[in-house]
Amino acid sequence: MAVKELKVFDQKLYTIVHAITDTIIPPGGAFDVDPKVVDPVLLFDNYIDSMSRLQLKAIRAVIYTIEYAPMVTRLKRFTKMSPEQRLKYLQGWEDSRIFAKRNIFLLIKMLALMAFYSDDAVAEAIHYHPECLIKD
Amino acid sequence: MLFTYNDITKDVVERPDVCIIGSGAGGAAMADVLSGAGLDVVVLEEGGYYTKDRYSTYKPAVAMKILYRDYGGTIAFGKNPIMLPLGKAVGGTTVINSGTCFRTPDSILKDWAERYGVENASSKDMEPYFKQVEKKINVTQVSPQVLGKNGLVFKRGADALGMSNGMLMHNMINCHGCGRCAFGCPHDAKQAVHLNFIPSALEHGARVYANARAENITIEAGRVTRIQGSIINEQTGNKLYGLSVFPKLLVVSAGAIYTPYILEKNNINLSPELGRNLTIHPAVRITAMFDEIIEGYKGVPQGSYVDAYASEGIMLEGIFVPPEIGLPILAPIGKKNKEVAMAYDHLAAFGVMVSDKNSYGRVKVGIDKRPFITYHFDSYDFKKLVKGIAIASEIFFAAGAKTVNPGIYGIREFTSPDDIAQLFTKKVPMTSVEMMAFHPLGTARMGETKDHSVVNSYGKAHGLDNLFISDGSIFPSSLGVNPQVTIMSFALRNAQYIVENKKALFNHE
Asked: Least packed by Cβ within 10 Å: which of B71, B310, B391, B437?
């Protein structure tokens, strides 16, 4: 864990965001990258480091909402759920009929995935080789 | 001289003839003409100064963090909040736009004259300015060599359906088709204004301050007398030094969001219309999967268009973004996410943009002292957007797409052209469509009376003799096309007006 290198998240947020990113982009599957090389939470944290205080407050608030909202209906925090439960829960956010809920989650998903898919190792894994059509 | 925060070691005090706030399309063109006429010009730009040496090293996501305001996530709030990307750099949004160039449509210029009383701005009047701009920024047609397959497949579909289409005009010299126009052209092939109007103004002796935020505007006896602000550390955003400018004339060119914002923040209430009448071009992206490899990120992202429905206010223009920008929206969470990522090379995308006739928005100073944007997207305009989605879907199927994703919540991706009918048989709520918008205009519109407009036909503020506005905010209505040529052309025309009337405008004593 690279908590020392974190600029925005603390240990607690790191744990929650780790659970969120692991659910959005589960390890394994169609391609894999070495988690020692690519830490999605660290990428996410470093990406948002120059946001305004207000924006960071909003992001922290959303992350804590994702963590604690299931306490109301499932009596369990997000990080205490099984991977299957987490996926079902976050799919509930992603596919929510409530526009605001859907879009708040989209914000977190976008920031996490933008950072993740910007990484060289990930780009290589998905065979993304940006090139110009006319070479120098 | 161009100064960045690195070059400045003490508070800045300037006493120029003209101070221009903002260095985008309107500010840069204005600076060039005014300095070329021998006036002493100072330009203040809040963003940093970047050229290909810097942004060619940025990945797209990093470019969004550095070259855009709010990471590209400036939002217009309303029933359906809409993202409105804005640039923040010397060169403004021209650094991160697609480079697409259109002259102002004749019908729009006629409408401005008839409905808003805008004088001397007919197609004939504007012709020399259009020509000047097109020469300066090197407007040329997208060449087939750099169009890329994303543009080609859409053209193939439009041709099969007999729909009018073509290659767009863009401001490029020796475009390599790198697919990165929106993140700073890595070869500086795209002729954003920091590569032409700004260097030209610098040659004429203008001084451009990057990382310089204008904050307070002082008005005394009906004239702007002072602009105060800060020199900002680009890395931390912290204030380094103070900035005071005492100009004879002020030009605000901060764009249709920040121009009304800075004026309202300073209680400069030029007209009840200031900050109102915001138009944007609401847009959606339609994606399609093909068996063939598209590699849409290679080639000019916005290279071709379909204008078969332009008379209805529906324009279809190319749009493609690299995976780190596209996948976060397109790919669902879970295992499927990586599967979609692996298929990205087979994806094609095209944009649908509508001209907002009945919709309207407003810019105000928010409770957090930042611009607060609201936008009411009218149902008539929304219907046009849905029709545009249907047209784009039809074109993709005609081009051989396997599936088409209309980007609408609650509607599954289309697997055959028959599915498109759902757009008209099912209820499509506005909040189900993931929208973006571009080209904010109209918040300080031209006209001849203070009750209905903010500036006169030449951009001079009603009620203040030495304040001009030069950006997209002065346009009374949506253009229906990309606005950079219009903004620059009006800036040239209005700068000429200032030069011709400088005695009256400057010597008020």
From this structure: B310
Could you tell me if B387 and B368 are in contact, meaning their C-beta atoms sit under 8 angstroms apart?
Answer: no
Burial A98-125 (b: 16+ CB within 10 A, else e): ebebbbbbeebbbbbbbbbbbbeebbeb
Where exactly are the structural domains of chain B? Answer: 142-169+278-437
Q: Per-residue pLDDT for chain B (509 aa), expressed as one digit of tens each? A: 999 999 999 999 999 999 999 999 999 999 999 999 999 999 999 999 999 999 999 999 999 999 999 999 899 999 889 999 999 999 999 999 999 999 999 999 999 999 999 999 999 999 999 999 999 999 999 999 999 999 999 999 999 999 999 999 999 999 999 999 999 999 999 999 999 999 999 999 999 999 999 999 999 999 999 999 999 999 888 999 999 999 999 999 999 999 999 999 999 989 999 999 999 999 999 999 999 999 999 999 999 999 999 999 999 999 999 999 999 999 999 999 999 999 999 999 999 999 888 899 999 999 888 999 999 999 999 999 999 999 999 999 999 999 999 999 989 999 999 999 999 998 999 999 989 999 999 999 999 888 899 999 999 999 998 999 999 999 999 998 999 999 999 999 999 999 999 999 987 65
Q: CA of A134: how far to CAs of B176, B178, B315, in Å? A: 5, 8, 28
Option in B70, B175, B333 nearest A90 (CB): B333
Specify the amino acid at residue B148: G
Give the DSSP H/E element, type plus range, for residue B130. Answer: helix B123-136
The SS3 call for residue B335 is helix
For chain B, the farthest-separated pair of C-alpha atoms sits apart, in whole angstroms, at 73
Contacts of B60 in chain A (CB under 8 A): 118
What is the rounded distance in angstroms from the CA atom of residue A82 to the CA atom of residue B286?
35
Find the farthest-apart pair of alpha carbons in chain A and give their distance in angstroms, rounded.
60
Q: Return d(Cα B238, Cα B398) in angstroms, integer.
A: 54
Q: Count CB pairs under 8 A between chains A and B.
A: 116
Chain B interface mutation, best of A132, A135, A136, highest count of B Cβ atoms under 10 Å: A132
Instruction: Write out the two tokens for B297.
Output: 């990120």
Q: Cβ of B179 under 8 Å from any chain A Cβ? A: yes
Buried b (16+ CB within 10 A) or exposed e, B228-260: ebbbbebeeeeebbebebebbbbbbbbbbbbbb
The C-alpha atoms of residue B458 and residue B185 are separated, in whole angstroms, by 33
Cβ-nearest to B148 among A30, A51, A133: A133
How far apart, in whole angstroms, are the C-alpha atoms of residue B505 and residue B502?
A: 5
**Closest Cα partner for B486 from B126, B51, B62, B149?**
B126
The reply to whether residue A117 touches residue B324, judged by beta carbons under 8 angstroms, is yes
Under DSSP, the state recorded for B261 is H
Q: Which fold has domain B142-169+278-437?
A: Cholesterol Oxidase; domain 2 (3.30.410)
